[in-house]
Specification:
The chain is of the alpha/beta class. It has four domains: about 160 residues; about 300 residues, Vaccinia Virus protein VP39 (Rossmann fold); about 70 residues, no CATH class; about 25 residues. It is about 40% helix and about 20% strand. It is built from 22 helices and 19 strands. The strands form five sheets. A ten-stranded mixed beta sheet has the order 3-2-1-6-7-9-8-10-14-13, with helices on both faces. Strands 18-15-19 form a three-stranded antiparallel beta sheet. Strands 4-5 form a two-stranded antiparallel sheet. A hairpin with a 2-residue loop joins strand 16 and strand 17. Helix 11 packs across helix 13. It is globular, with a radius of gyration of 30 Å.
């Protein structure tokens, strides 16, 4: 059996295990809505995995906890000793485990509460953010707590580490998350990005140093500022370790949805990753207090990371964070995250982009971040959005922008783009931006999931990477798959918005002057967008003066703007069908219609 066959069999086993666990939902019908099943199954899966892992050291932990309580040892010292005793970064000091819980059906509610309270604080944090206490009350009221615990204590839910590795457990948990996400239909993409997109992003991140990692290994850090269920960090870790056994990645992430934060932290604990690096809070906030509420804010101020990978929300306003964001913009300037500019308050995705830029490691940091089309072109010259584009393009931070196919995400069918930014460009890319149109590079799904109708398979990803690596003006094909690359100087995307004035003229048609300056006719004021690469005088000579010989530029009103007209740059003109061909087609249709009418009605 080949390695590929073994991997396929592993994937089948993982899916079968996840399906068996998900079947527990049959006991929840009527009590919970289908999209709420995950509220039971995900935390129960987490608890059972930890219960199975802790089983060999359970008695020793309980005994040690009593000893420490007698000695009045508390805090970090107590946690450290109990973790060492359990053999994990978590523990449970209660007298119960799943087997003992179902041995006492009558006391199931009070015993289960004691069991939950026996966990270490990191597990309690997960339970709290799952809002599991509320879920348990519903289960008790509906009489299903015992039967669900019984199902999770059956053979099909055995998750002991000696039977299921941390990596495979992570895959099983991810498959359960996917099922949970699919049950939301169009809402799935709010916290779950499919693996095909993530694999492309990870390859774009590590591409320049893949050979070095393969040869020497690496020790890296990664950050996701809107981590959802942390799948991006998991996929990046997996990819690095597939390249080299000596590759080490320490992950950090932040998420403001408490339930998906709990999933992310649980996933990291299950995989044996950096669970303490998973933080709850609003990444865009600097201050903790909003409307007199203590809301966790940016947990990674002052941090710098080797890799940043993220799919932040777009089309979501930043009204809640407005006071904090504006204060950081106004007071801290470029020392803060948002100094370059503020986008429209209706869409905060570019604030996440700036947050990522601030947290990239100087000289080497690389970021792959998803944005929708508005980040490319919205905002006039001098606006916040335009100034953000100016900052990252003039700063030579933008390496490439890749247009993805539509219908690729669970919750939206619109055009989306991967921006690749770095603080360590290769020399050949210096002063350049590569645009890649991969909108026609996809395979259709056999079954749609929400808005997701297409996938990126290995051939798609390889073709996009081929275009990215070649860094040239060329088209690349693989069967029906097509990718096109174009490379531009940074300055190509900049322009000066100039005020074109027409002077008031006297009876002789001469400009009216005041202090030797022509006086503008306000009713005839106009503007022009002159590319930075063009000479202004030559532009005026060619495009304005032939039609308005007296026109002039009021340079006091000049504004620099930046936009990336992606669609226009890759537009392909398709000539209209010649009129004679259209006429011939009409005549053919008329002849066909006449024949059909005769067949139906004869000569009547």
């Amino acid at each position: 059996m080949t390695t590929s066959d073994l991997q396929k069999q592993t994937n089948v086993n993982i899916q079968e295990k996840a399906n068996l666990i998900w079947e527990t939902a049959t006991h929840l019908v009527g009590l919970f809505k289908p999209h709420e099943y995950g509220k039971v199954i995900l935390p129960m899966t987490v608890l059972k995995r930890f219960d199975d892992a802790l089983r060999p050291t359970k008695d020793a932990v309980v005994a040690m906890a009593r000893k420490l309580d007698d000695q009045k040892i508390e805090g970090q010292a107590r946690d450290g000793i109990l973790c060492k005793t359990s053999g994990y970064s978590f523990y449970n000091t209660s007298n119960f485990d799943f087997a003992k819980l179902i041995a006492d059906p009558e006391g199931i509610e009070i015993n289960f509460e004691a069991y939950l309270q026996g966990f270490s604080s990191n597990i309690k944090d997960i339970i709290e953010n799952f809002d599991f206490a509320s879920t348990v009350k519903i289960m008790v009221r509906g009489g299903v707590l015992f039967v669900v615990l019984q199902e999770f204590n059956s053979t099909k839910a055995d998750m002991a580490p000696e039977k299921i590795t941390s990596a495979d457990m992570g895959y099983i948990f991810e498959e359960l998350i996917r099922k949970f996400s699919e049950s939301y239909d169009e809402q799935a993409g709010a916290h779950f990005t499919s693996r095909d997109i993530i694999y492309l992003m990870t390859e774009l991140l590590i591409s320049p140093e893949k050979d070095e990692i393969r040869e020497k290994g690496c020790t890296k850090t990664a950050y996701d500022m809107a981590m959802g269920t942390s799948q991006m960090l998991g996929c990046l870790t997996e990819r690095l370790q597939a390249i080299s056994d000596e590759a080490s990645l320490t992950c950090f992430g932040q998420e403001f949805n408490p339930e998906t934060y709990a999933i992310a932290k649980a996933d990291m604990l299950i995989k044996g990753g950096n669970a303490s690096g998973m933080m709850y809070g609003d990444t865009l906030l600097k201050e903790k207090y909003v409307d007199k509420k203590d809301i966790p804010c940016d947990a990674f101020e002052g941090y710098e990371f080797d890799y940043i990978i993220s799919n932040p929300p777009f089309g979501i306003d930043w009204k809640r964070e407005a006071t904090s964001v504006k204060a950081e913009y106004e007071k801290d300037g470029f020392e803060g995250r948002f100094g370059p500019g503020l986008p429209a308050i209706s869409d905060g995705q570019m604030l996440f982009l700036l947050n990522g830029v601030k947290k990239l490691k100087e000289g080497t940091g690389r970021m792959a971040i998803i944005q929708n089309g508005s980040s490319l072109f919205t905002g006039d010259a001098g606006s916040g959005a335009s100034e953000i584009r100016r900052h990252v393009i003039e700063g030579d931070l933008v390496e490439a922008i890749i247009q993805l196919p539509t219908d690729l995400f669970y919750n939206t069918g619109i055009s989306t783009y991967i921006w690749v930014l770095t603080k360590g460009k290769e020399m050949r890319r210096s002063g350049k931006v590569q645009l890649i149109d991969a909108s026609k590079c996809f395979v259709k799904r056999r079954k749609n999931i929400g808005s997701k109708r297409v996938d990126l398979n290995d051939s798609c990803i390889d073709l996009i990477l081929k275009a990215y690596g070649a860094f040239d003006n060329a088209a690349y094909e693989d069967g029906e798959l097509v990718v096109e690359s174009k490379v531009f100087d940074n300055s190509y995307f900049g322009y000066t918005k100039v005020a074109v004035e027409t002077p008031i003229v006297d009876e002789k048609g001469e400009p009216v002057l005041k202090r030797s300056k022509p006086q503008p006719d306000k009713e005839k004021s106009d503007s022009e967008l002159i590319p930075l690469q063009d000479d202004m005088d030559a532009y005026m000579e060619k495009n304005v003066l032939p039609y308005n010989p007296l026109a002039y530029i009021d340079h006091a009103k000049d504004k620099i703007g930046y936009e990336v007209p992606f669609t226009r740059l890759f537009y392909k003109f398709v000539p209209p069908t010649p009129s004679e061909d259209i006429y011939a087609e009409i005549k053919a249709l008329e002849a066909e219609e006449t024949t059909l009418m005769k067949e139906l009605f004869g000569n009547a």
